[in-house]
Amino acid sequence: MDSSSSPAPPQAPARSRGASNASQRWSILRRALLARSSSRVPERTSRDQDIKDEANNISRKASRGFNLIECHSLPISELTKSLENSSNGNESDLGCQKDVCVNYKLPCGGSSLNLVYRREDSLELNDMEASNRYNIDTTGLVCCWPSEEVLAYYCINHSDMFRAKKVLELGSGYGLAGLVIAACTNADEVVISDGNPQVVGYIQKNISINAETFGETKVKSMILHWDKEHASEMLNSFDIIVASDCTFFKQFHESLARTVKSLLKHSATSHAIFLSPKRGDSLDKFLETIKENGLNFESMENYDSTVWNLHKKYVAGDDRTWPNYDKEHCYPLLVRISSFC
Ligand SMILES: C[S@@+](CC[C@H](N)C(=O)[O-])C[C@H]1O[C@@H](n2cnc3c(N)ncnc32)[C@H](O)[C@@H]1O
């Protein structure tokens, strides 16, 4: 899934689709195993080529983002050093060779966040195995996608909305938006979730290393797969749900819509904010599913003048710093979902 890739594969009926997703993941794994156990590159069949194309569609990194929040990379060793005297400074928990750290300077109260990410192109066999075991893709490990930064920026600029609220981020990947909400707003509680347990390992790491930034806000990570039944204490409990770039997966549209419906507090002020590029017809299809589930939505193209002006410059070619910028895959629309009209 990248800025130049085509959207999700055509839909098959739910059962065979589950089987075909699994068999694709295993085939990718098989190729990786063969490549590892032999210096000879395994012979490639046309089926393998289809699978490779598919894998490229779902797992390639976006080349860059909107650069809305000032950030720079930090060697993991620096992070370890700066946390040496802190109670959270358990070195072994911080990160390893395959990780990098990015420091974000937040435009709120001079605070900053350190996020540990997987190094680019370091997807491993156990990632594929976990992906298969938990029926989940690996896009959360690939990078922080451009929409996530836009979501974080939007939340900073609308911080009042979160005051004293219970907030949930779905499919959060590394959790930038959830962490920003925890650091820059007076939310009561922020739950940062993803369905991929390995991704949630990173979310927890990122919560731990930034714990001192959250003030009174309670912050926790959670494995939350949209397809699974949700714990009864979660139902009807969140004032605000946020998500970025989660509508690409058509096989999960129904369960994602049901998750929003069942976890959102049933009140006139509760709502979900999704930032999602159109990615073919995937966003439109998701919005149809939202309606079918009895929820309402409004979708906005121009919701922030800074983001909109950057977008217009990339499209017009006036700013060439994002050369493969493609509106369909890079520009997130803002969708506001609620149970009430
Ligand atoms: C494209 S990534 C976006 C990650 C992050 N929000 C961002 O924009 O950087 C999609 C995320 O959704 C998660 N995801 C996909 N299917 C899911 C499901 N059925 N249940 C829960 N999470 C899911 C993936 O693990 C991944 O982290």
Automatic annotation (TrEMBL):
<dbReference type="GO" id="GO:0018025">
    <property type="term" value="F:calmodulin-lysine N-methyltransferase activity"/>
</dbReference>
<keyword id="KW-0808">Transferase</keyword>
<feature type="compositionally biased region" description="Basic and acidic residues">
    <location>
        <begin position="41"/>
        <end position="55"/>
    </location>
</feature>
<keyword id="KW-0539">Nucleus</keyword>
<feature type="region of interest" description="Disordered">
    <location>
        <begin position="36"/>
        <end position="56"/>
    </location>
</feature>
<dbReference type="InterPro" id="IPR025800">
    <property type="entry name" value="CaM-Lys-N-MeTrfase"/>
</dbReference>
<dbReference type="GO" id="GO:0005737">
    <property type="term" value="C:cytoplasm"/>
</dbReference>
<dbReference type="GO" id="GO:0032259">
    <property type="term" value="P:methylation"/>
</dbReference>
<dbReference type="Pfam" id="PF10294">
    <property type="entry name" value="Methyltransf_16"/>
</dbReference>
<dbReference type="InterPro" id="IPR019410">
    <property type="entry name" value="Methyltransf_16"/>
</dbReference>
<dbReference type="InterPro" id="IPR029063">
    <property type="entry name" value="SAM-dependent_MTases_sf"/>
</dbReference>
<keyword id="KW-0963">Cytoplasm</keyword>
<protein>
    <recommendedName>
        <fullName>Calmodulin-lysine N-methyltransferase</fullName>
        <ecNumber>2.1.1.60</ecNumber>
    </recommendedName>
</protein>
<feature type="region of interest" description="Disordered">
    <location>
        <begin position="1"/>
        <end position="24"/>
    </location>
</feature>
<dbReference type="GO" id="GO:0005634">
    <property type="term" value="C:nucleus"/>
</dbReference>
<keyword id="KW-0489">Methyltransferase</keyword>
